[in-house]
Amino acid sequence: MTPKTAAAILPSRNEAATIAAVSTAVDAALDDARAVVLHADSSDGPDTAEHFTAARSRARKVGLTGLQRGKGAQILAAARRAEISEADVVLIADTDTRNPDPTIYRALVSRVRRGASMAIADYPRHWDEANLTNHVARPLISAATGHDVPQPLAGDLAISREALAAAARAAAALPGELAACVNGYGIDAFLLLTAATVGPIDSVRLDEPKRHAGSFPHLPVIFHQAVPVLLHMTATGSRPITPPDSGPVVYRCADRALPPHRAETMLTTLDSFAASSGRYDDWPWPLPVANAWRAVNSGTPAADAAHQLWPHYLHRVRDWLTSGQQATTRQRTRMLAAAHARLQITLIPPAGASS
């Protein structure tokens, strides 16, 4: 019997400062001369690829440069390579990580080898971060599919050969607008929700936040690429007959003081996004998420439903950042868990209740 091998995909764009450390940590985790580490790069210059090439590695390294820009496009281009499609498990790691840890990557690979279709990192996020995850992605995936994944958009994950092949086939069949979203930041939700149709999803719990580049300035792009995928795949896929019975929902918020100037900058940025976001109606959160999901379930294009949700989401993030500054860590986690439970009840009413 041929020994099973692993591979890794490192998607990057202008990550010269961190790519070598991530590559080295991934190589240490795989610890196999037969493994392949594939760098899928769409950088503006050669520096990132050069730093990847220069990093020492026991595994064989393959560099793909000049790829179509977009995290999803890079990952899918790599997935079509024989070096990746023949591996029994594929590790995908964020290349902007400033504290890459081989033990985390090793644990992800191990969980897939033990039977998961995907294993995804579950690290605590600072309370002012992860807004798309905490307010939309996690509660929506949980309510609509029964899979409560604490960090569904985490960039560090391992996926089985079968699940990655299923994702590649599904991506090729997507209509143009959704395909464009999956080629971008929609890839994380797409891989997770496709893998969930193949086998169990597992999480590797970590105690420390990951240090990486902030995503807040790119919030509009991330939202309008990730949310249509989330809405489409949760609204058109199969739903659980009953809500998941896994006990109380637990959110983790790593505490930190938010300097007044940073809070003011974030709120000003949100206001600039809202200037062209369309009409906002004061519906209590998370009712707008449920409305968007129902719209897609009734035939509204997912991108249109996401566009209608956008101003409500901006309002929610503004409220969260404003109220969160005065709240304790325990209060923040309770607020997130309460909104999560409200969406669960809204989408899947308890037995005997009217919907």
Automatic annotation (TrEMBL):
SUPFAM superfamilies: Nucleotide-diphospho-sugar transferases (SSF53448)
Domain of life: Bacteria
Molecular function GO terms recorded: glycosyltransferase activity
Cofactors: Mn(2+)
Keyword Glycosyltransferase: yes
Keyword Thylakoid: no
Family: Belongs to the glycosyltransferase 2 family.
Protein name: Glycosyltransferase family 2 protein
